[in-house]
Amino acid sequence: xxxxxxxxxxxxxxxxxxxxxxxxxxxxxxxxxxxxxxxxxxxxxxxxxxxxxxxxxxxxxxxxxxxxxxxxxxxxxxxxxxxxxxxxxxxxxxxxxxxxxxxxxxxxxxxxxxxxxxxxxxxxxxxxxxxxxxxxxxxxxxxxxxxxxxxxxxxxxxxxxxxxxxxxxxxxxxxxxxxxxxxxxxxxxxxxxxxxxxxxxxxxxxxxxxxxxxxxxxxxxxxxxxxxxxxxxxxxxxxxxxxxxxxxxxxxxxxxxxxxxxxxxxxxxxxxxxxxxxxxxxxxxxxxxxxxxxxxxxxxxxxxxxxxxxxxxxxxxxxxxxxxxxxxxxxxxxxxxxxxxxxxxxxxxxxxxxxxxxxxxxxxxxxxxxxxxxxxxxxxxxxxxxxxxxxxxxxxxxxxxxxxxxxxxxxxxxxxxxxxxxxxxxxxxxxxxxxxxxxxxxxxxxxxxxxxxxxxxxxxxxxxxxxxxxxxxxxxxxxxxxxxxxxxxxxxxxxxxxxxxxxxxxxxxxxxxxxxxxxxxxxxxxxxxxxxxxxxxxxxxxxxxxxxxxxxxxxxxxxxxxxxxxxxxxxxxxxxxxxxxxxxxxxxxxxxxxxxxxxxxxxxxxxxxxxxxxxxxxxxxxxxxxxxxxxxxxxxxxxxxxxxxxxxxxxxxxxxxxxxxxxxxxxxxxxxxxxx
Length: 676
What we know:
CATH topology of the domain at 168-343: Jelly Rolls
Oligomer: single chain
Strand content: 35-45%
Helix content: under 10%
């Protein structure tokens, strides 16, 4: 009996041990800067860790990658057992309801990694969208369509609104000539007051007339003795003995004004609003209809302040009206030099689009003030029947926000007149060489991008314009992280961006017999080392996935990358000094320890000598980077000595670790050799 119980106890312990092994996850050590070093594998199963490349952790405020790990029955070898089927998990999207907006196109649940799109429709015309956030990540709309890739967890969508910014579009400067007078002139007619208001845009007048006024002066004067002053180009409201006011009859509803000028003293107070309100008086509380404001935001008038034109401006908001009264209420004058109006009705204009010969191609009526017009017709054509071919190259003048009626004329360049970029040339100095072209810098200038939209593609599907190449790319940000371009612009998944194709800058590693061994100074693009973990038999030999000779990255570098970056000139490329004799390659791990190349020789240390920044193009094309310093992680061509599915890489802090071959967020840092 004792023996039987002993056997049962041993059997139970064995079952518990196996159960514990099944639950044992792969052991990885994640670096603090975004790259993970694989340190051990201790499971008998052969399933790939689903967290590979698909998750990001935050360390010290920056995003970082999580290392891929793969269980193996023997450390350093790959099991050939069948993989389990993929499980698609469903996660929830929650958001707050509001009477000010409606969210359309959004479901309550989505599968992980699926594309989510939605729109925010405003119901309150006094509000505008301040931000749309997915958890803590700010989303940016493309034609009012927001999108994100559903992460592996529930998310919260937050919509923040703000009061719509007032659009001040009608400015009047005060013009009044005192002539030989040394004191202000007291107006006697409404026409005199009206004539003092000079519109900066006569085609956009808003003041119809001055219907009434009291104790208002043309010009201003004050002080005594050496401090006495007088000046024109202002209107004085009231005196120290009587308040003054003006009633302006307008052709549009106005709900705010900008007042520029001087105050008699900081305590001077005005009241502004609908002239027909029953709440007017020489004092009293502010109301919903009228606005009461001290003029302490204006400079106190004096001889020096007026002489130096130290004019300040204040904003006053009130209920919308077309009969606007402005009045002093505590017998302390206002000296008005300019006034600007914010209307609740958006002023509209006509935009005309013409061809080179004056033919009207399109007329857009009722284009709102401040909006940017767009041409929706067929692409303009220039055909002079002279055997020449012309390419449409945008509009002149450059398209800008509407402030008045505008006419744009189609601009053309003759095909063959394009100036070719400098990528055909090689530039050399003591430290680096520029050779080849590749998309690198984000193009924000809409005057350029609006032209590029209408130009045909050239080599590499690049667009040639004004002697420079550009490339349009749909963004695919790693793990939908909150990545930005150098100017702080958020990079939005699925949105199209233009990038300027610029000369590739190469660090000179070594010079021998007119041959230059070079290494790129920036991480140019993202790419996996190899597509999968599969073992292969080639020419009778077992080949692991981390074998550079048979890797997908080697094929990519010497095909797609080579033909793109050196499409204009590959004549100076020569075989690299490795056993493969490729024109494009990667450095091996030991090269990054070579002090003769300028690298620190200690592999265990972080080293700025090995740090490398990610280009703006690569950020939009899947490369991981440290958001604090733009440093990325990149491949060497050296296989890991521990695991047959990992390769040595340089991480964001410049130290060497190993990483699984299918790390799609890793970048490339190519090396080439050129000769003359």
